[in-house]
Structure formats: C-alpha cells, structure tokens
Amino acid sequence: MFEFFFKYPLASFMKGRFVLLGRWPGWVLVLLAVLSAGGLGWLMWSRRAEAAPKLRGWRGGVVWGLESVLIALVLLLLWEPAMTVAELSSQQNIIAVLVDDSRSMGIADSGGDGRQTREASAVKALQDGVLAGLQKRFQTRVYRLDAKAMQAKDLGEIRADGAATHISDGLKQLAAETSDLPVGAVVLLTDGAENSEGGVGRETMNALRNRRWPVHTVGFGKERAAHDVEVDDVSVASRAMADSRMVATVRFHQRGYAGGKATLVVRDAGKPMLSREVTLAPDGAMQTETLFFHAGSAGAKSFEFGLMPLAGEENVKNNAVTRPVTVSDEKRRILYVEGEPRWEYKFIRRAEDDDKTVQVVSMLRTTENKIYRQGINDPKELESGFPVRPEDLFQYQGIIIGSVEAGYFTPSQQELLREFVDRRGGGVLFLGGRFSLADGGWGGSSVAELLPTSLPAGRSTFHRDPATAELTTSGGDSPVTRLVDDPLKNVERWKKLTYMMDYQEAGTPKAGATVLADLKVGQRKLPLLITQSYGRGRTALMATSGTWRWQMSEALGDTAHDLFWQQLLRWVVGDTPGRVVAGSSAETLTDDGRIRLTASVRGQDFLPAADAKVEAHVIGPQGLSTTVEMVPAGDVPGNFVADWTAEKSGAYLAEITAEGTGPLKDLGRDVVSFQRTDGVAENFHTEQNREMLEKLSAETGGRYWRPEDLSRLPREISYSEAGVSVRDTKELWNMPVVFLLLVGLVVTEWLLRRKWGVV
Amino acid sequence: MKVLQGISVAAVVLMFCTLVYAYQRTADWGYQPEQTSEKAEFAWSRLSYTSNMSSYGWGGYGRFGYGRGGSWSRDYPKADRQFLIALNRLTRVQGRPIEQVVNLDSDDIFNYPWVYAVQVQMWSFNEEEAKRLREYLLKGGFLMVDDFHGSVDWENFMNGMRMVFPDRPVEDLTNKDEIFHVLYDLDDRFQVPGEQYIRTGRTYEKDGYVPKWRAIRDDKGRIIVAICYNMHLGDAWEWADDPDYPETFASMAFREGLNYVVYGMTH
What is the ipTM of this complex? Predict the structure, then answer.
C-alpha cells in the first residue's frame, strides 16, 4: 500500500536523503512560496468588499490556505524534488545470514501453532522464500551462531545444539573474518538469548558501525513464557567460616503463578540444607528473598540455590543456580581485654567454647597488678600485657575491649589499636561496662574515631538497671542478630528475650554506622548494637554487660545467648584478611574459561609487599594441577595478577602463596574457588529478548522483523551503505501521492465553495 | 505432795520451755534476710536450703524452712561480709557489700551465678528444687560448698547431690587444676579448721581428718560444683579478726575463697 502511493518502499525514505534537483537554490523556492502566499492574501484582503459575503470571514481564510498550499506544491514540483539513497549493487554483495543454533533455539514455542521449535521456524522462514529472494540479487552466506559464528554449507547443519549464545562475539568475529568481503547487510535469526552479560558490547557495535552493516534481526520464540519460574541471580559471599551462618539473596521472577506458593531450597552437593515456602510476586516482577543457612564443614563447596519445579512449568532448568563458596576452618583469634572480673566475660567465653573456628584469647585484670590470661597458645603470649608491637597485635583477627578504661592503654597502644582496624583490617568490638565507653574516657581518646557512635559527654552513662532489646529494621536482616530463621519470628524472639542486667548510653550513631538493635529502657530507646566499617576493617559497640541473663534466665538449652555472641564475634573476625588475599575476576565462568586471578600481599607489619614472589597453584577437574606465576598489577603496590584459562568445565581451586624478601619468608597463603559451567546459561533467559534485538537493529540501521513479515526483507535489505553500494537518485515529483494531493486541493476548494454557495 | 509439787514444777518448766521454743520457731519462720538496694556486679549469694535433718542443736527434725538458725546460715552474715571486704580490697571484682540469700524455691537464683552453701550434709531437696539447681549449674551457675566433715556428712551431702546430678562423678582436684591458680597459686594448701581450733587445737572435726578439694564438672570439664570437704573456710573468714584465730588459716581461707570466686566468674 505504501509503495502504491509513494512509489518507493518505506525503507528507502527512512534511509534516503531529500534533495532538490532544480537549478535555482532552495531559498528562492521558499521566498517565492512566501511571496505567493502573501500576495494572494493581500489580493484577497484588498478585494474583500467585492467578494461574496460568506467569504469575508474565516471561509476566506480557508480558501487562502488551500490555494497557498497548492501554489507552494506547484513551486516545489518545479524545483524537481528527489531522494538519494544508498543501495546495494545487484549481484555484487554478500548478505550474511546468521542463524542462532544454540540449545535455546530448540524450544518448541514458535510457528503458526506455537509448537514448532525456534530453529525449525527460522529454517522454514529461510526456505520459504527469504533465502531465495535474497539470492536473486545477492550472494548469501549462511552462518550458524552459538558460542561463535561458523559458516554452514547448508541449512541442514543448523541443529540447535550449541552450548551457548554469544551474539556479540559472533558479530564481532564475523566483522573481523569478512573484512575483505563485500558484505552488504546482516540478517540475524535468533531468540536473542545472549549469554554474555550486557548484551551486545561496545567493541562489537564499533565493528558493525565501521562496516556500516545494517543488522536485520528476526525474533523467534515467545516474548513472555506462560508458566515459568526463573532464578535471575544469587548473591552470596564467596568465602565463609566453617559452621557459620551464611546469608544469600536470591532474585527470581515468575510468570503464570502470581500469588502461588513455591519452595526455595539450598543444597550442598545435592543434599537439601534449607527449604522455605515463599509467596510468588506478580507476573514478571523481580522478587528478592533472603536465606540464612549454615556453611557446614570446611572445604570448597558448590551451593545450589533454587525453587522447586511447579506444576506445568515450561522450563525447569532455569529454576536453580550454583555458587562456589570456600569454607574455611582456619582458627580466628580474638584478643579480649577485660578490666574486671564480670559475668559478661564468663558467659561470652563460654559461648565461644562451642565455636571451633573462633578462639578467644583473653587478658583479664583480676587485681590492680595481676592479669589472668585464658586461651593463650604459649606461656609467653600476652605475658607483658597488651601488645606494643604491630606484629604481636596483628596476629589476632579481632579485639574485644571490655570494661577497661582508655587510660589503661598508652598512646602508642591506642594508635596501634586504630591501625589494627585501619591497616590490618581487623574487627574491634567495644562492650558496655562501668569502665567502658564514656565512663572509661574513650570519648576523649584518640581511639574515639573507631567507635561507631559519638559518645555522650560525662561519665555516668552506665546504669545497673534492667533493659530489654529490640531489633531495628537493619537488625532484622542481619545474620549477626538472626536467632530464628524466619525473619518475623526472629523479631518476636528478640522482643521476648529476658531483660539485660544493665545498659549504657552509647550516644549518637555516626554517619555510615548501622544500628542493629535498640535498648528499651522504660519508654526510652537507645542504641544497643551498632556496627560500622572503618578503613579495611570494622568496629562494633554493644552497649551492655548484661546479656548473660539470656543464658541464665532463659530455659535450659535455649541457644539465644550463645548463638548471638558466636554470630557477633564471627562478624568481628570473619572478613579480617590475612597477609595474602586471593581473588578472581569471576566466581562462575559461563562457557568461557578466561579468568584473572588476583592477590593482595602484605608484609609482616601488614604494609604492601611489592617485592614478594607470588604463585597460584590451580587444581581443577580431571586431575589438573598447574602453577601460575603472578606478576605485580602495577597500579597498587602489593597487588598481583595472573591471567589464566580454565579449559574444562568443572570446579577449580587456586591456592595463592607469597614469599617475602624480609625477615618473614612465608607471608601466607589463601585460596579462591571458581567454577566453569558450559551450556547452563542456555537454560536461562529463554524468552525472546526482543528489546535487545530491536536495539541492535535500530543502532545499526537495520530493522527488527517478525517471522511473518519476512517476505519484504529481500527488497528492503538492499538499502545499505555497506558492501558495494551506489547512491541512487529517485525523483519524487511523479509519485502518485503528489498528483492526488494536487487534485485533492483543487477539489476540496471546489466542494467547499459549493457547500457555501459561492461557486 | 512433794511428788505433786515436783510434777507441777516439771510441768511448768516444760510448758515454759515449750513456749520459748515455740516462740523461737515462730520468730525464725518470720525472719527475712537483710537486703540492700545497692547494685554491683557480684553479689555474694548464700544458699538457703531446706533440711530434713538435725544438726547439733541447729534446726531439728522436719523441714525447717529458711529461718535463721537453719544449718544454711552457719557463720552468717559475718563470714560473708568479711569475705566481701577482702574481695573488694584484693581484687577488681565489684562486690556488693551486703550478701544475698537465695533459695531454690524461685527462679531468682538465676540472677546470681555464684552461690555458697555450708553444712551441706543437712540439705535436702524435693524434685523441683533439685531440678532448679541442676539447671542453674548447667546453664553456667557455680556452687561452692563448705563446712561439712567426715564420712557421715559426706554421705548425707551426696544424698542431696545425687538428686541434682545422679550420674556426674565427683573427683579430687589436683594442684594442676586452674581453680588453684586463677588468682593465687595454691599448691601448698592445708586444712583450715573452724573456730573450735582456738579451744581444742584440732584442725579436724568428726572423722574428717584429711581435707579434700573436690569438684563436679560439666561436659566441657569446667568445675560447676566446688566441694571444700573436711574444712571450714566460713569460720576462718568469720573469725579472721579474732586475735586467737591463727592468721595462717584465715589467709589460706581467703585465698581459696577468692580463687573460687574468680574461677566462677571466668569459667
């Protein structure tokens, strides 16, 4: 229809450029049109008195308008309007036809009846005339596209068995491999299920623009699944302490089950560790659920997070994802400095007796001049009191400051305490007590900046009066305060905890600090448990010394007290780095084994060890064992990198060791685990990604096509500036629409005059 | 006539004695231990238990409740207060100057994780009391028992203890045990006699010739019941200010008591 009126296809107008072929300049046309309209208007106005009465008002204006447009149109035709458009030269160009043959194309949701596979639909569309139509004017090359683009001898090679879809990489590869060929356009038949994050990358887009390729995308598959649940992402720490409580955030969406129930499951080596029923959000809405589970024993683990398949689900392979987690049973040591014998000290120590991964080493002032040490490794440890040298203090991962005055520490020890957090990356926990916080003079000390609150002035902030605890919103989501897995029940559990024997006014939380729990004293609310990050480490404040009542007054066997302290102290030390910290560019490699291993190496005093010798020993599937030398990263002293490729699918473990040049030769070791999964990504995002395909075609000058519209593709694809093309000039004066417009204007005026009776 | 007079006098005397005794029992039942509103970290807690047994003029037959004069209150309150003076003076423990009397009738005992009991050969528990004491100890409470002597006392003590812990063994402590080093090194311990030493020169009572430092432990090996058998530390604290009571006994008693308190607050 469009071509009937306008003589040329819409695509030519979209890509063409309007020109005037007349010899006179365009501004003369505009001037004449304006002068004509003005002259006509002046003539009509000056002779208004002689005109029929009906034409003296607005009707005269309408007549003037119609006649002015008519004159302007005639003038335009005299200037010879035309359109220049680039067009592929016939028989001199190649059209690259890329057909996605990844596994997702094997899903049977296409065709007229919706039961044909996407791949079959694509092949059928090509066989039903598209390919033949293209071949009338162009050469064609058919490629099958999965992880990369491979030329296919015929359509029979396309079998929808590719393990991955890398559209971006495939297009980039095509641009590189055909740099000496006159490829005029690209036709991409796909579901758009790109496995790489971020869709079509910048490099690919630049390559396409350099070749001026219009990419015509043809979308296959349902744009919306009828019944499906899909896990989009799982966020979980890549390392954990043995037997610790871990938190994972699972993001998923569903279609067709809004308001229904589903079961979230966490598995370790196939064995269910946790399951929880959730109510599903509306169709397409992203849903986020937080799961708490136990890391279990030490080792390199692969946890699976997923939803149990629902009845009638179309694709159950996208219900779960796995994440590698390195669980360590390395003993973390906490130095607990206590200024007086008190119950809180005893019961914290007892709580930690059950924690195999945390060792509390304590120094307790029993008298003015006696220090009682517990948990020491050898008789000389802490023999002289609180350490004064970094290498002595930095052997601990955390510190608890109990009821002890700031003045008990020398200025250099206070500075060491600050550097313990800032430089070493350790955690410090301040407890309430009669010599603690403001009452202990900590507010005026050089360590005050470590505290997560601004302490109140004065020294009467410790009160031996009952207070109860209540979780804040942040506390409700924190693994530190999680006594019961169910979030709502956990909040209620805290409300029902027996009162604490005492409390301390902790002041105002600093910007960036997080209050996990509040004290309730009568009608007053005061911060009880506050945490914050500081430098490389973290600090916390627990404004009471009376939680021991949770142990003594709750029922025998109640775990609230011990669990809370174990979780809090694990938070204190859990992220404290060693001298060697290993990392990787990704935890899960999807169909591509390239990975960058990183290491941050520090010396004996935890200053960057730029001259260390660092190696990564990688253990992988099928007995793989190799050593990779790491080189300085260059940008930050003490940072090392190594680029490596995991060739096979499976789980990998890299142990990174560092050797120093100073007195301390063995700087330490750290492990990082990662996994390569091949073909798994094809099970996800299986709905047609029309948005991505439309964007790709729009940005390259192509067009998004539905399969049923493909018959026009062979004709429209020729408008391209790529390959061997010529710029054609197409005259517009003889378009039928112009003739119709001229006639229409005259007829309209005549009909109006007839109607008004002024013919 | 003389016989009648004699009977009458005897009856009057008997009636008088009965009235006096009855008056005393009524007074004992109404006794309330001295309390204080002062707050501190540590409260010296003396266990007031019930008894089914007589005790050499203290108490008698039947369940005598918690009245003062019961066997639980031997040396009370002077021993307690003198010990508290030592505790506050010699350690950094913040001890309340006035002791606290606790019993097993209510859950209030759970607010006092350290408890001292004497004359424990006299104690007796019903099921509820035994259960409460068992839970108290397993949750983290600490019990120090003192001032019972000889084999008969031991058996009577164990009769109560077996209601609390039917299966947990009682063991003799050695010098290596942490409780003897937590504050003072007490490798050279000796028998601390009661006040009777001033009159008799004997360090033992009944057939308790050899002092025994024994204990019951929890599943992690921590002492939860510290047993001072064949010694009388309470008397030593009480009579420490008596010029006739040897300083060496009082000092040892204080050191042992302080070690037991600090151990109970650290383990």
Answer: 0.87
